[in-house]
Design brief:
Elements lengths: L25 H5 L6 H16 L11 H10 L11 H10 L12 H6 L8 H5 L17 H29 L11
Helix pairs in contact: 2-4
Pfam families: Pkinase (PF00069)
EC number: 2.7.11.1
GO molecular function: ATP binding; cAMP-dependent protein kinase activity
């Protein structure tokens, strides 16, 4: 799930700081206001992650401020084994730190990029594209199996909550004579 906000008028901006740190565009972090160009940034982060197996900035960091600093200051780099020039090109354009220059600043520029040369966006919008990969049916989890697993997880979670609550109550038990000194 993501978040969305309607921006009024052309050039509208929002200043809400929201998002998963590794996927946040520099303009969100710096608080300068942003619009739809942050989505192009996030597409670039996802594409980098799909192709390279990790996010481009602060992969091992958990501290949001460390992640933000890398996003703002560090130039993008690629693993030495990643040689696909057209993909590097589109990722670099999507991860341009200047929002207005990010892949031409529009979705039409994204769709016109050579990387999507053979992709039919009209068929996509009409839901007429066939998936290039469909997992085998025997590898999919059935609804019944999913429901069993979910019930088991809920049971375990509820049991852990009870145990923690009992432990908390024992630790925080109030001395019935607490007010004798007054």
């Amino acid at each position: 799930m993501g978040t969305a906000k309607f921006l009024k008028g052309k050039g509208g901006k929002t200043f809400t700081i929201i998002g998963t740190p590794h996927y946040m565009a520099p303009e969100i972090i710096t608080g300068k206001g942003y619009s739809y160009n942050v989505d192009l940034w996030s597409i670039g982060i996802c594409l980098y992650e799909f192709m390279c197996g990790e996010v481009p900035f602060a992969e091992d960091a958990e501290d949001p401020y460390e992640i933000y600093e890398e996003i703002i200051k560090k130039p993008i780099s690629y693993p030495g084994s990643f040689k696909d020039k057209p993909t590097k090109n589109i990722i670099s354009q999507l991860l341009n730190k200047t929002p207005e220059l990010r892949l031409g600043g529009s979705y039409s520029a994204l769709k016109a990029n050579i990387w999507f040369d053979k992709f039919d966006f009209d068929k996509l919008m009409e839901r007429q594209l066939k998936s290039p990969y469909v997992p085998p049916a025997n590898k999919l989890i059935s609804d019944e199996e999913f429901n069993k697993q979910e019930a088991l997880n809920n049971t375990l979670i509820n049991e852990l909550k009870k145990q923690n609550l009992l432990k908390y109550k024992k630790e925080k038990a109030v001395d019935p004579n607490w007010d004798n000194d007054f």
